[in-house]
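Protocol step 4 of 5: obtain the predicted structure for the target chain.
Materials: sequence only (see below). No template structures provided, no constraints applied. The aim of this step is simply to have a reference model before the mutagenesis design in step 5. Sequence pasted as it appears in the construct record:
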Amino acid sequence: MSKFFLFAIILHIYFIVKQQVLSISLEEAHNSEILRKCFEEIDQGQYNSSEVLLEKFKNYAYWSHEEIPCFARCIASEKGWFDIDLSRWNKQRIVDELGANMYNYCRFELNRAFKNVCSFAFKGLKCLKQAEMNVIITHNNLLECVKEKSISMDQLLEYYHFPQLEHIPCLFKCFADKSHLYTVDYEWNVLNWLKAFGPIRNENADISICRVNANEREKMDICAIMYEEYNCWERLNYNTDGISVTYKKALKKIFNF
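Step 4 output (structure tokens):
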């Protein structure tokens, strides 16, 4: 499985001339039998009809908790994406059917340990739906920056191993601006970071350790600051092998060395 990181998805765009349209929209005709079977398995006493259930389920990407108990588990299992007995996601099938970017966006969510198999299935399916909505936006925002700056494939490949210094001036700032990763005061819009890159490895991590401190900010321009903070974000998710100044400080803060 390839790692999900910002510049990997633009390589994907360069190599694919006609991109497959990937969808997990359950209201599509070919999912009707799956929906019928899963509707039959739940207690419908509180619902007027299957249509009401379907309409409610369309918004599951925005649920804070599973509003139709264990329905997502049934859907994911019937799609062949989730093994109920083993409480495990079929990652290769997700890659094959939805694409590597969809899987990589949710890779941490699909690997979290949950005692409740229904909650595990719901969290994973919810993430995949969010990926369907957000990955294409991330693609488009970065592609716009590539076009604006007339960036070649060779130039992009320089980012593959996360250089400590940005090779293309202000490329990440261009993406960050289009994705609204920062406020007007250059504070993080954390929810937008999560929309752009997907759930982080450790949900309880203190991501504030990736902010460049005030003293260092005085020595850096805004493009360098943003790129440094992005690199730290990726390293906290174990996506890179390099070491940035911010990441070193983050490790020291976490492990006290």
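Step 4 remarks: Confidence is low (pLDDT under 50) at residues 1-5, 13-22, 242-248. The beta strands are 82-83, 88-89.
Proceed to step 5.
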